[in-house]
Write a structure and sequence with these properties.
Number of strands: 2
CATH topology: Arc Repressor Mutant, subunit A
Strand order of the largest sheet: 1-2
GO molecular function: DNA-binding transcription factor activity; sequence-specific DNA binding
Helix content: 55-70%
CATH superfamily: Winged helix-like DNA-binding domain superfamily/Winged helix DNA-binding domain
Oligomer: single chain
Family: Belongs to the LysR transcriptional regulatory family.
CATH class: Mainly Alpha
Organism: hydrothermal vent metagenome
Domain HTH lysR-type: 1-59
Shape: globular
InterPro entries: LysR-type_TF_proteobact-type, LysR_HTH_N, WH-like_DNA-bd_sf, WH_DNA-bd_sf
Number of helices: 5
Number of domains: 1
Structural class: mainly alpha
Length: 82
């Protein structure tokens, strides 16, 4: 289990917008990308991506924990943290 590979897969999915594009970017199958993201989610105990058959989005938890969000809202007192 390579923790950095899992994080790289998650980052590639967010930046690329799809598991397929992330797989192409990383040179691995999309099923491997999906498994790595799932492993990361399991390790953290939180869903990082909202998946549907038509859309892929970053979960609210991830958005609220992002550096850009924290710069905008400061300490985690925003309703996102409730």
């Amino acid at each position: 289990m390579d923790k950095f590979a899992d994080l790289d897969a998650f980052t590639a999915v967010v930046e690329s917008g799809t598991f397929s594009a992330a797989g192409e970017r990383l040179g691995i199958a999309k099923s491997v990308v999906s498994r790595r993201v799932s492993q990361l989610e399991n390790r953290l105990g939180s869903r990082l991506l909202n998946r549907t058959t038509r859309r892929l989005g970053v979960a609210q938890y991830v958005t609220c924990a992002s550096p850009a969000y924290l710069r905008e809202y400061g300490e985690p007192t925003h309703p996102c943290w409730d």
